[in-house]
Amino acid sequence: MLDVRDVSFAYGSTPVLDGVSFGLVPGELCALFGPNGTGKSTLFKCILGHLARRGDVSIAGQDTARLGTSRLARLVAYVPQEHRPPFPYLVREMVLMGRTPHLGGVFGPSRQDEEAAEVAMERIGVADLADRSYTTLSGGQRQLVLLARALAQDTPLLLLDEPTASLDFGNQLLLWQTVRSLTAEGRTALICTHDPNHVVWFCDRALVLGREGRLIEDGPVRAVVRDDLVRTLYGPVSEVVGYGEDTVVRPLARASSSGVDPSSARASAGHALGAE
């Protein structure tokens, strides 16, 4: 479904991504994680063609460099970290925008497009906000509306960049469970996240970006989210433990009793990965 081959990118003389390669198959839910500054959001922008990268990207067997905007929008939907439109569109109008790639002419959205938007709002749980102005919503509510818009877009590939950052705990789980159900229906999803617990609870696979934007891990989540890796990424502040049939990443008992100095832990993680 998604094939990324030897993708590299630099901001001026500063390298951000270096030879990143991986492929995702239909129905796969894959996490992209790692510390701040390792190029996760930049990778998303390279996949979407927003940045002029080196290397090749194809979606559903089609080279994205040869696709127009409309065709690409039929293949991949993107949920950014944050979005603030300059005009106070209603929520239903925001979600209906996801149907833009499917519009057949100058007559505007069809009844089918409107129904797709309604179904998306119901599924994400924002139907009660349909007549609210998007600009008056909380950050978490806006994020759910953006997910509904992506769902209405009806693409085989979803890219979600830290979609739970503004959500309360219940809506975080709702979002992950919704994406999990979408991949069970055959869609493919790549999600950037900072929470390793979400990775092990919901994802099939994990990609880890480390030093200078190199892919340092790629595999099933239980093989990737290990105690040694988490300590390398974030410093000696947590541990990976088994809890029944589950895996949990938990903080060390107490910083004071374990002798962990948070500032030195951050410095250790940054040194190990070359994080900026």
From TrEMBL:
InterPro entries documented for this protein: AAA+_ATPase, ABC_transporter-like_ATP-bd, ABC_transporter-like_CS, Metal_Ion_Import_ABC, P-loop_NTPase
UniProt entry tagged with the keyword ATP-binding: yes
SMART domains registered for this protein in UniProt: AAA
Superkingdom of origin: Bacteria
Pfam families hit by this protein: ABC_tran
Domain ABC transporter: 2-237
Annotated segments matching region Disordered: 254-276
PANTHER family: IRON COMPOUNDS ABC TRANSPORTER, ATP-BINDING PROTEIN (PTHR42734:SF19), METAL TRANSPORT SYSTEM ATP-BINDING PROTEIN TM_0124-RELATED (PTHR42734)
Protein name, as recorded: ABC transporter ATP-binding protein
Organism: Cellulomonas phragmiteti
